[in-house]
């Protein structure tokens, strides 16, 4: 009987089964879940209203500042590591390769612990500029740079070699041709993955709580956890999560549009 069905019919039956399973799962969840208890624990409107405006003017603002500072530091360091990775000098390539393997292999949490504990021990009396903000920028940047370096390297290698040859034929030095011609084109290529890295950094900024921050330096996760502990209710955590989505969802949409535009251009 099944063998007599056409391919289109079999595909429709398969899709129908998948839709049925999806609806069945939703129905089971809707029937089994204790919605009153969930609302009690996660959706207390009076408690949620008490979080404003501090959750925006302080927690979200700090999260954005931590993310942007870490992204900028990681981008600069990542560019340097990428150029070292492509260098004709072997020691530069070795250092860049070791850096990338180490910082891509270690959890971000360990990097933050290293920045908060190991750096002051290794360099007594030395303060990281910017205090907590500087430590967060360093921690996030060290992690991000390892990934950005590989992204930028791939972007540079994706630029046609003829671009470099044309610049050299016009009298440009290798360094000037790289800075003026190759790197700008490479960044146009890697904008989508770099934007995606920004989204990941925004979420990783929650690790700042392991550095020990003051009340005014708290980011969204720390702010939500503290208020949840004080009120014995999880509504602050839910509101903090919604604030993360307020930023990450638009950024994700931007990433998809940039990727679609890049695919169309190719």
TrEMBL record:
Gene3D superfamilies: MetI-like. It is a multi-pass membrane protein. Keywords: Amino-acid transport, Cell membrane, Membrane, Transmembrane, Transmembrane helix, Transport. Its main location: membrane. The keyword Membrane applies. It is found in: Cell membrane. It holds the Pfam family BPD_transp_1. Residues 60-255 form the ABC transmembrane type-1 domain. This is Amino acid ABC transporter permease. Belongs to the binding-protein-dependent transport system permease family. HisMQ subfamily. The chain crosses the membrane at residues 16-33, 64-84, 105-124, 237-258. PANTHER family: GLUTAMINE TRANSPORT SYSTEM PERMEASE PROTEIN GLNP, MEMBRANE COMPONENT OF AMINO ACID ABC TRANSPORTER. InterPro entries: AA_ABC_transptr_permease_3TM, ArtM/GltK/GlnP/TcyL/YhdX-like, MetI-like, MetI-like_sf. It comes from the Bacteria.
